[in-house]
Design a protein that fits this description.
The protein has 1 helix and 9 strands, in the order αβββββββββ. With about 160 residues, it is α+β, with helices and mostly antiparallel strands. The strands form 2 sheets. Strands 1-2-3-4-5 form a 5-stranded antiparallel sheet, covered by helices on one side.
Length: about 160
């Protein structure tokens, strides 16, 4: 017997199998897309905010002397650097700001900025001494949390100002 056409059963089987394969492929494509978005968003958050953290650390290291720390709060820090520039880091809404010679936005989408101060014995200071008195701060721990899209990225670093 010579067959020149497909039976209805064969056509239904082809349609069902094509549907199953298309469903599996769409799931895989969706997962790849989600991973790409995750990596891209996290990468942007890491690079942008690593720069902000590095800038804060670099400027904190440049404090002029132990008499030049003017504000040492949990959410704000103000000091005079060796070049006599007054610099303050603080959170305004969701923006990490640097107030100095010019006002700069160091990072956006910030949900937490926290400074913790320690003395020479590595004891946490609840109320650090600030100018006009000599400061008792020896080390500063900085915590920064940023939310980009659905991703939350946490940064933490510590710095010892050179002239303290």
């Amino acid at each position: 017997m010579n067959r020149k056409a497909f039976t209805l059963t064969e056509l239904v089987m082809v349609v069902v199998l094509s549907g199953i394969i298309a469903g599996i492929l769409s799931i895989l494509i969706r997962q790849v897309s989600d991973v790409y978005t995750f990596v891209r968003v996290r990468g942007v958050a890491l690079s942008d905010n690593r720069l902000a953290m590095n800038r804060m650390m670099r400027e904190i290291r440049q404090i002029k002397s132990s008499f030049n720390l003017y504000k040492a709060q949990e959410t704000a820090l103000r000091l005079y650097k060796i070049d006599n520039e007054c610099v303050e880091f603080y959170l305004s809404g969701t923006e990490l700001k640097r107030k100095g010679g010019s006002d700069d936005i160091l990072a956006t989408d910030v949900t937490l900025l926290e400074f913790t101060y320690y003395d020479t014995g590595n004891t946490e200071l609840t109320t650090p001494s600030v100018a006009p008195d000599e400061t008792n701060v020896w080390r500063i721990l900085i915590k920064l949390t940023v939310k980009k899209g659905n991703e939350t990225v946490k940064f933490q670093s510590q710095v010892h100002p050179r002239n303290l």
